[in-house]
Design goal:
The chain is of the alpha+beta class. The protein contains 16 helices and 15 strands.
Length: about 450
């Protein structure tokens, strides 16, 4: 058992990691269960299976039949949800603190006793395929999916969270249940709780409800590693609509890499400070370099960039909606000019200071509520550990002008670049270079 900065960390005998943070400023508590499984753990034939299992775990247990859990949470004045991403699946409930035991009972029950009724499985197949087809109506989704699959050729980040339709049509109930039994046990799970409770009492109750759940089987080893990219890759996607989109992605390091914090600052300088929680947020990016270079010049109606915190190296992406009457080549050229500028010229001390202040503010906003605190505890343990979250601001404060230029020069190289255009059908040249299979989710999470 370890205590660090007000966080109590315990591992139960069955391998379940428990993170507790007492916060007594409001009579509310938030309970999260995180599983170390997402599309990262999938392969052709079962892509989308983690997202589908997430849905099935809302379909009831013998103790909490389908619909009973939802009603019980509503009666107690709580909120709940579940979501799947590339690196994780998670479920949470936030309730008045004197009602939080309901969350513990539900999550312990479905960790072991989810039903996976065959008829419900088939109904959910239709729902998820419809969800996938709905995503395909979004040009931005189609472009990001194609570009992600081009960027990752060996690593399973190649696959979209929702999965490929051919796999969604073929996955069986037995495959879903086996995936559940393999990855959703206590030895692959983290419980994160924040809010108004007494730690000894909470830990004792968690041990009572979760401690007797047997550890799952040995987890399959994860060995995939993306080889170095050896040159620019380009993808063109044609589809319906009247709007053109441009997206450019570079390979970026994982959350635990020493360069990650400097890239966060670079992301803010280029695209503005981002909301750092699941619930969105962020400030106006009108003073950012990309806004001034692409939107104020009327090349694009919007322009942004994004850096994700991930277990393995992922992507630093730039995206824009091309303004009517302008060409994607113009937007691409403007992006590349701004990227080259930050490579060639150090940012100013004033620009660096502003970016760090804005990022600090977004970090503070994203961790205000007990739900946010519990989220950050679990998410940090997934991509790194709780110290990663606790020391984030300290690392941010050490970033220098030289650090920002160095990471720009290291990661924004032309050989690491993946360029994608979405062109309305019948417009423009559709030839591609280095065009691989398609596949990456354009959204942060797939939520129930």
């Amino acid at each position: 058992m370890e205590r660090t900065d007000g966080i109590r960390i315990t591992m139960l005998g069955n391998g379940l990691t428990v993170l507790l943070r007492e916060m007594h400023h409001a009579p509310v508590a938030s309970f999260w269960v995180w599983y170390r499984v997402g599309s990262r753990n999938e392969h052709p034939g079962i892509t989308g299976i983690s997202h589908w299992v997430e849905h099935m775990m809302f379909k009831g247990t013998p103790v909490f039949p389908q619909g009973e859990f939802d009603k019980a949470i509503a009666r107690e004045g709580g909120i709940f949800n579940g979501m799947t991403w590339i690196d994780f699946t998670t479920y949470f409930e936030t309730l008045p603190s004197d009602r939080i035991d309901l969350a513990l009972r539900v999550e312990a029950d479905r960790m072991m006793h989810a039903v996976f009724d065959p008829a419900e499985t088939e109904l959910e197949r239709t729902v998820i395929i419809s969800e996938r087809q709905g995503n395909e109506n979004n040009p931005g989704y189609l472009l990001s999916e194609a570009l992600g699959a081009s960027a990752f050729q060996a690593h399973s980040y190649h696959h979209p969270v929702i999965g490929w339709q051919c796999d969604l049509e073929a996955i069986t109930r037995d495959q879903l249940f086996q995936h559940y039994r393999t990855f959703y046990g206590p030895n692959n799970a983290i419980v994160a709780v924040a809010g108004d409770f007494e730690s000894d009492t909470m830990l004792a109750r968690i041990e009572e409800l979760f401690g007797g759940i047997p550890a799952g089987p040995a987890l399959p080893p994860f060995t995939a590693k993306e080889p170095p990219q050896r040159g620019e890759r380009r993808v063109t996607v044609e589809g319906p609509g009247a709007t053109t989109y441009v997206e450019i992605c570079y390979h970026a390091p994982q959350a635990t890499d020493p360069d990650y914090s400097a890239l966060v600052v670079l992301d803010t300088i280029l695209g503005g400070a981002k909301g750092m929680s699941l619930w969105g947020g962020g400030t106006s990016n009108r003073s950012s370099r990309l806004y001034r270079a692409l939107v104020e010049t009327e090349l694009a109606s919007d322009a942004d960039c994004a850096l994700s915190s991930t277990i393995d190296p992922y992507l630093f992406s730039f995206s824009a909606t091309v303004r009517e009457g302008r060409e994607p080549a113009e937007v691409e050229a403007a992006f590349l000019a701004e990227i080259q500028r930050v490579i060639d010229e150090p940012v100013s001390e004033a620009e660096l200071s502003k970016a760090i202040k804005q990022t600090r503010a977004q970090f503070a906003y994203s961790s205000e509520s007990v739900t946010d605190q519990a989220y950050w505890l679990g998410f940090s343990e997934i991509v790194a550990d709780v110290q990663w979250f606790e020391t984030f601001l300290d690392r941010l404060a050490t970033i220098t002008v030289a650090d920002v230029q160095r990471v720009a020069q290291t990661y924004l190289k032309p050989t690491q670049r993946n360029v994608g255009w979405y062109v309305p059908a019948g417009e423009g040249d559709t030839e591609t270079e280095g065009h691989g299979d398609t596949g990456m989710e354009d959204v942060n999470v797939e939520a129930e």
